Amino acid sequence: MSPHFARTLAAHDLGPLRRSAPETLQVNVGRRCDLACHHCHVEAGPKRTEAMEPRTAARVLELLACAPGIANLDLTGGAPELHAVFRPLVRGARALGRIVIDRCNLTVLDLPGQEDTAEFLAAHGVRVVASLPCYTAANVDAQRGRGVFERSIAALRRLHALGYARPGSPLELDLVYNPQGPSLPPPQAALEERYRKELREGFGVEFGRLLMLSNMPIKRFAHALARDGKEQAYMSLLVHHFNPATVAGLMCRTTLSVGFDGSLYDCDFNQMLELPLGGRARSVFEVDSLADLAGEPIATDRHCFGCTAGAGSSCGGSLA
Fold first, then answer.
1. Alpha carbons 52 and 261: distance in angstroms, whole number
2. Which of 168, 179, 200, 252 has the most crowded CB, counting CB atoms within 10 A?
3. Domain span at residue 175?
4. How many folded domains does the chain comprise?
5. Considering the entire predicted model, what is its pTM?
């Protein structure tokens, strides 16, 4: 069994972890997705039916309106654009003056019924954080499905034509990298430059930043590790590369995660493992103020080594 994360923090005089004032509200609007990627910790896919109800989305906006310190609404899924509450959440948060982030898989932009989604994102100034786990077709298609790379490049070109990642444009477009297997991401700066060179020269594609995310040893990726007999080796890799310098920037300190049913969590990974916020199950309907959650303990387990190994990992990229 891997050493318990809390004991590791204590050994470095870093624990226990407690929440700071929330700055980002990350909302999973549902599990349905047009893809079923090998590394997906949400286990999203075309057959998933979980979806946020309109009254839950409305409550999220009510709480956001009363929390001026929360600058960002981070929408994720599944493919968030496929869910009915996505556009009302975007419109509502932008009306409140908040930054809206769309965790986009890119291929969703060419689906029937999504013909105007790219234009909608641009019109509302939504920051797009797009999954592209490599700059080669072979690696992307191996991880995400046949033809996904070609469709992703077409989507990036479309976003670029709308103004995303253009010099002087306020429209932000970042890419997300995940390792192909049970390994740590390489140094972020060096890989970002390689991505920029390959995508620019090969496809005329531009982007802002490359965000590095480690594969979390939970759900679909954990099943693959167990199937291949690599679970223990991967956990050992994460544990032995624990980096104390990453702890101060952990996203669970300032990010509040909301499930499609309104349940509250410290992070998206805890959400998938059903580890409730502060060890006490609550929903958006049971709290009066998101700011009041500051100071609460953060639920941790062995998967937290994934965020603190090497240069660290978060929805904003490397931590150290």
1. 6
2. 252
3. 19-224+248-299
4. 1
5. 0.95
Residue 161, amino acid: A
R_g over Cα of the chain = 19
* pLDDT digits 0-9 by tens, 296-306: 999 999 999 99
CB atoms within 10 A of CB 112: 5
Query: Quick check: is 8 in a domain?
Result: no
Q: Residues with Cβ < 8 Å from 197, sequence gap 6 or more?
A: none
Note whether residue 220 is domain-resident.
yes
β-bridge mates for residue 26, sequence order = 74, 257
The CATH number of residue 253's host domain is: 3.20.20.70
- The 10s digit of each residue's pLDDT in 139-191 is 999 888 899 999 999 999 999 999 999 999 999 999 999 888 899 999 989 99
Q: What are phi and psi of 15, to 5 degrees?
A: -120, 175
Residue entry with tokens 């805890």: 270
Q: Does residue 27 come out as left (phi exceeding 0), alpha (psi in the -120 to 50 range) or beta?
A: beta
Instruction: Please state, as a whole number, how many other Cβ atoms lie within 10 Å of the Cβ of residue 76.
Output: 23
- Helices 54-65 & 86-95 angle (0-180, nearest 10): 20
Positive or negative, the CA dihedral 198, 199, 204, 206 is negative
Report yes or no on 14 lying in a domain. Answer: no
Instruction: Tell me the C-alpha distance between 192 and 318, whole Å.
Output: 12
Structure-token pair, residue 173: 């477009």
Residue 95 is assigned to a structural domain of this protein: yes
